[in-house]
Amino acid sequence: MSEPLFRRLTLLGLGLIGSSLARVARERGDIAAELVAHDSDPAVLRRVAELGIADRIEADAARAVADADGVVLCAPVGAFASLAQTIAPALAPGAILSDVGSTKQSVIRDVGPLLPKGVEFVPAHPLAGTEFSGPDAGLATLFQGRWCLLTPLPGSDPDAVEKIAELWRRCGSMVEAMEPAQHDRTVAIISHLPHLIAFTICGTADDLAGETQQHVLDFAASGFRDFTRIAASDPVMWRDVFLNNREALLEMLARFMEDAQAMARAVRWGDAEYIENSVKRGRAIRRRLIEAKQA
Amino acid sequence: MSEPLFRRLTLLGLGLIGSSLARVARERGDIAAELVAHDSDPAVLRRVAELGIADRIEADAARAVADADGVVLCAPVGAFASLAQTIAPALAPGAILSDVGSTKQSVIRDVGPLLPKGVEFVPAHPLAGTEFSGPDAGLATLFQGRWCLLTPLPGSDPDAVEKIAELWRRCGSMVEAMEPAQHDRTVAIISHLPHLIAFTICGTADDLAGETQQHVLDFAASGFRDFTRIAASDPVMWRDVFLNNREALLEMLARFMEDAQAMARAVRWGDAEYIENSVKRGRAIRRRLIEAKQA
To answer: Using the beta-carbon criterion (under 8 Å), do B260 and A196 form an inter-chain contact?
Structure first.
């Protein structure tokens, strides 16, 4: 077994992603010699202790990061600014701070300026998840075969970036670095917009059911079922994601609405070829994802 | 075992739904004493013979329905009018004609007027499916625990309606009757619109990838993955569904677009409460579907 990557790794936030990371660290042994867990919710911390997926639980965030050489923010991105403010004075010189937030420009804006000199900041985003949340939802296999996107800052220490990349490789992920703005646009289309649409259509259907007093939802066929799966995700996490990736999300939604209007026009005017080609395109994309083992 | 429901049951179209129905009939034995299969594609018919899921294959549609006491149209709904024209003169007096089409007003419009007197027409729509198509994709378990919606006509023979209801109950489905217009609006929101959205967003993402020369799709995260699954469905079937449920689909799309614009406005103006409530609503709907065992 390789040397543990971190002497003391602190996870702040033990929901789906944080508790999955804790489980991988526990299973492998080569990620952290000591794993410290903090969560703002005492019930979550108690559950982490019961599950035995951390060496130590710590209700005080500043105390949790003391003397850690690795710290990962795993809370909803809206909580990052105040969390960073709390822990900044307690971060050890030479410590690497990373995160798992779904938006990267906002994290760099909110967290970057608060960090003391000597602390290395390497923002990261594992593209993994399920519709479940909380410490019981975590899975040691969650990151296997999934991408983890890093958005290092200009002037980031290459050793620190490599250490975070290695952390995710040991979780079974493929790692790629990109610009923060490119990251935010990419995830806006492949993840944030699909979630926004899924939340919206559930409401649209529910309104219709209420209006007509008909049992619309009782008959949920295959299409709608999949949408509700996505829509079952954590409300606070997604609220924060939408508010912190506002520009990219609104751009992608506008593009999608234009395309949906074009499809509506094809349906109205009976443009069979346009419709058939749209469906064929969806199929081709699906095939590409299957070949890339991301489906 | 009960008496077979039909002496000779003919399936016209052996794709996902038709071949699933054939498999159930084959497994149970109490659905049809003899099962005849017709498909306009000779390759499909050859495959049906290889799979051994019909007693007889018949390349001529009129010959396939001769002397059958039950006939089920399982082709894409756009093919129903010409198919009905072909088989109408050959239908036996007293035969029951049904279908599995996803749109019901169009089927009643296209098929109803062509039928000879003495043939009973009972439109039906099993709410079941996968993203796969063709005779190899069929599953004997496809309809188990799923709804089948019947839209009997005014003056339909109650015995014929009951026989088709019993057919679907023997397939493991729950059966409910409703007005054709109500059916079309219900499936527009729970099935057709989700598919239209899934096809559209795949194109939106693909356009963006092409425009920016970035590997957007390589990173397909969980949300987008589920959309591509829906979008992998059969192009001809869905083209026909969209064109034959035009009014209801356009109404539901318009409702959805209004709601998506409201969500966009909440994102733009930072209305955290609106966003959080939308996500919570999606969760509640998901919970209801799980309780109703439709998730």
So the answer is: yes
